[in-house]
Specification:
31% of the residues lie in helices and 23% in strands. The chain is of the alpha/beta class. The strands form 6 sheets. A 5-stranded parallel sheet has the order 2-1-3-4-5, sandwiched between helices. It has a 5-stranded mixed β-barrel with strand order 16-17-18-20-19. The chain is globular, with a radius of gyration of 23 Å. The structure holds iron/sulfur cluster. Iron/sulfur cluster binds at residues 122, 146, 148-150, 153, 155-156, 190-191, 274.
Length: 441
């Protein structure tokens, strides 16, 4: 069984360097790296240095020396990283040296020397990894591990049972990210809706007031920060209903990523999925009644062992009825160490392929129909990047990397991280095209 990559982190220096450390750690956590407190347990150590005064330079050099002696595999970043020769002269065998406030370069160096593990069914970030250029969105990981035992998944074996991060710590991290210019927080965990279960929802503290370690309370507080807040990996448990009004009130984005994986009760049972017995369709309908603008995203697996044509058709019927907005689909493939590997009746590869095609064809039609209805509407759009004079952004209903984009031609003066108001003028089955109405707050 391949194991998860483990990182040690040493952070020196001023509050600005601390924000960089925070961002690096936040993203590494979301990508599935485990942060460990000792040199011995780490596969690699990142040292975020300070080079402000001579004493700080010496302290930083000593920290690099210690990490090299104790671990041997070291990436240096931060202010002293701007003086590559000073570092290389003393420590020629550091793996990489990157400069201050260049957290993208650190992540790149980490990926190179210690690649992240990617599992298509359970990874919290897109397969291509976190896009390194935009600094205006960040993943906020609220817990580690998982209490479920889905048969296709080895996360619990790798990371153990659910461990929620203290709510005060999560909120402080979110505050620092927003203060550093982050406009959108993507809340992730293996099972976001289970947040706080392990702590029996006990109270933590934030801004001097008690606050329960619970998803609804977390969302309420995150909604006060003035950033877009997007929820991923939320299982449709009854208490999730409490969050939908926050979406209707505009406190957090009207967006819910609910990984359903299948619709046939037989297959869900074989998968041992959480919330498999909840009445998903009626729940979706109730959510839409409270928040008609809600965007629902999900992922599914086709070709799970034992999936019959009837099971698959049940899944297609569900899709037709649920009319989800954004859908991803994977062909089942065994993961080393997963219980599902022992299940009988594997589905032949060509059948999996054919089911994937039928699935995607149906969803493309549903998606195209839904996007057509947005033509003529004015939407708030967050600009992600500029491409040859065209601004590329996303509406509230689109997560970065995995959902659709909005292309805006009359984009003069726009830059990434800006919010604008856009009139939608065209759509295909995935993306939208719009015209700038006015900059928006
Ligand atoms: S809910 Fe299931 S698929 Fe997700 S991490 Fe837990 S065991 Fe794995």
């Amino acid at each position: 069984m391949s194991r998860e990559p483990k990182i040690g982190f040493v952070s020196l220096g001023c509050p600005k360097a601390l924000v960089d450390s925070e961002r690096i750690l936040t993203q590494l956590r979301a990508e599935g790296y485990r942060l460990v407190p000792t040199y011995q347990d780490a596969d690699l150590v990142v040292v975020n240095t300070c080079g402000f005064i001579d004493a700080a330079v010496e302290e930083s050099l000593e920290a690099i020396g210690e990490a090299l002696a104790e671990n041997g595999r070291v990436i240096v970043t931060g202010c002293l990283g701007a003086r590559t020769e000073t570092i290389r002269e003393r420590y020629p065998n550091v793996l990489a040296v990157t400069g201050p406030h260049a957290y993208e370069d650190v992540l790149q160096a980490v990926h190179e020397h210690l690649p992240p593990r990617h599992d298509p069914f359970t990874s919290l970030v897109p397969p291509q990894g976190i896009k390194l250029t935009p600094r205006h969105y960040a993943y906020l990981k609220i817990s580690e591990g998982c209490n479920h035992r889905c048969t296709f998944c080895i996360i619990p074996a790798l990371r153990g049972d659910l461990v929620s991060r203290p709510i005060g710590e999560v909120l402080e991290e979110a505050e620092r990210l927003v203060a550093a210019g982050v406009k959108e927080l993507l809340v992730v965990a293996q099972d976001t809706s289970a947040y706080g279960v392990d702590l029996r929802y006990r109270h933590g503290f934030w801004r001097g007031r008690p606050i329960r370690t619970r998803l609804a309370e977390l969302c309420q507080a995150l909604g006060e920060l003035g950033a877009w807040v997007r929820l991923h990996y939320v299982y449709p448990y009854p208490h999730v209903d409490e969050i939908i009004p926050l979406m209707a009130e505009g406190k957090i984005l009207p967006y819910l990523d609910v990984p359903l994986q299948h619709a046939s009760p037989r297959i869900l049972k074989a998968m041992r999925r959480p919330a498999a017995s909840e009445r998903t369709l009626s729940r979706i309908q109730a959510w839409r009644e409270i928040c008609p603008d809600i965007t629902l995203r999900s992922t599914f697996i086709v070709g799970f062992p034992g999936e019959t044509e009837a099971d698959f058709e049940e899944l297609l019927a569900f899709l037709e009825e649920a009319r989800l907005d954004r859908v991803g689909c994977f062909k089942y493939s065994p993961v080393e160490g997963a219980a599902a590997n022992a299940l009988p009746d594997p589905v032949p590869e060509e059948v999996k392929e054919e089911r994937l095609k039928r699935f995607m064809l149906l969803q493309a039609r549903i998606s195209a129909e839904k996007l057509q209805r947005r033509i003529g509407k004015i939407e708030q759009v967050l600009i992600d990047e500029m491409e040859d004079g065209t601004a590329v952004g996303r509406t509230r209903g689109d997560a970065p990397e995995i959902d659709g984009r909005v292309y805006i031609d009359n984009a003069e003066g726009l830059t990434h991280g800006m919010f604008v108001r856009v009139r939608i003028v065209a759509a295909d089955e995935h993306d939208l095209w719009g015209r700038l109405e006015s900059p928006a707050a």
